[in-house]
Amino acid sequence: MEPGKPLESSQDSASLLKRLAGPSSTKAGLAYDQTAINRIIAEVSKGSKFYENEKRKDKELSERISKILKQRDEALQGVDLRPIEKNIDHLLEELESQRDLSQTVVHVDMDAFYCSVELLDDPSLQGKPFAVGGGVLSTASYEARKFGVRSGMATFVAKKLCPDLILLKSNFQRYSEMSEKVMDIFERYDPTMLAAGCDEGYLNITKYCEEHMVDADSCVQGIRDTVFRETSLTVSAGIAPNRMLAKICSDKNKPNGQYRLPFERTSIKAFMHDLSIRKVPGVGRVNERLLEALGIKTCGDIFKHRATLQLMDKQFGLIFLLRTYLGVASNVVQPIQRAERKSIGAERTFHALSNKTQILNKLEDVAGELGDDMVREGWTGKTVTLKFKLDTFQVFTRAKSFDRWVSSKKEDLFAIGKELLLPELPLTLRLIGLRVTKLKDLHAPEPTGGIKQFFEPASSSPRKRPRLASNTEDYNDEEDDAGDDYESMPGFYEEEENAEGQSFDAPDDEEQTHISHDLNPPRHERRTRPPVSAPGPSRTRPSDSPFSATTSKPMSARQGDRVRHQDCPICGKLLETDNKGLNAHIDFCLSRNVIMEAQTEAQSTAKKPKDLVLSWPSSTKRKRKR
To answer: What is the pTM of this model?
Structure first.
């Protein structure tokens, strides 16, 4: 869209207003009806580059939805959906058989953690609307949330919504100190808990309840009481048979409450049936709109549109959605192992800069911080990725891979980043970062020699999916398997990254420059939640990706692709392509087979038509390509 072009009438819509409201609009404590608040946010941000960028992305998403709906109509033309639905019903039975109600999983989530810690140090803030952050808010107190103030919001917008808002500077050292105390308490109940951030985590209390002969409700109440007694902080909790349900439940009675979902199939399905699809972990704002375009607003709607979802599996992720409909998910709770670390990075946000020297100075600072982290934590890698955000809020990445391990010296990292950045200049930037992937753990013991090592099974995480094919040269590979089997919809992690640090143009006196980087405390290599502007899982995609318009595939990655002759296991064709191309071709073959068989079935004149067999290998294990 051309800069300065008037807003199209179709853009002046609820979708744009909702997008401008940001990704935190579902936070606990916010007003149920945020229509008036969203309009204020839109009015305040009008004319800013942020507004223009969000308007552009909303328009692009609307166009993508139109294309997807057209594809849906073409896929459904002349197709008898009954055999498809019948086979999906068989798949649902298979997924249902995987339901495990034997484990008691708890999701614990501290209430407005940063603000609660600040309240400990300054009790005079009690009952007043206040928030933590600089140009962009990290979190807001529940009193502030009543006015619509939320994390990820620009301070001047928050001030417009709540003129009496008190702003506090972040004190991450203090937050980390309190996080350690809270996590120590959680570990008394589950020594192998999974910390999902500095203020939340998952516990499996099955063994604890059995050994201490207490029920789940009493145990969780005891956890919450202990946290408050020892730290004066409150925590909310959800109790359920798996992690997905537990996380949803922890938000039910926030703040300072708990909710237990009955451990019974019928109750779980009823709970999920009317649940908004946006409440499901792994469904972001973009996917919410895509699903709503198909008529899916609640989890119960998934069943109604199951045949369409099957024909468009690549766009929507059928298995994930079917598991969501059933309320079936992983109940494995284990700490994040050091071996699962996929990247280490640092980045800096600042007011828009166009001066080459100033930009390079920022890059040098980031390189130094990253180098220090690599040395302190014992990592090196083979791929360096540069990330930068323009003053128009568009995010891009460039990367370079090496056949050697990257040096952790500041000057070497700076030289690589400079090599990637200079061809892109001149630009006006507001964020710059470096990330090292394809990691090697320098603290890991050297593998034992001898022929036996060739017969030992490769170590793998039980939480990871088997790959249909693997491209060892793809520097983004490491992000593909984040999480459990079918833990999110396609494009979710791209959306999460692009939402990070999305803020309005802040006034000059509200600039907050900080460096954010990966923090790995000794406890289970816990992933500490960084400031708002820190990057999420970083993945670049071609510009025609249906889920991300703010990243593009780096030139160095394109040059590094390995093209060779490969056989398609579905159609048997000999292809001259790389592994990504092979994966895309296989996905196409699988979808095409289903459509062709359905069309043949619809046109068949046989009295007893054959059942359609879904064409995927091991349906519950096939890797959905994101």
So the answer is: 0.71
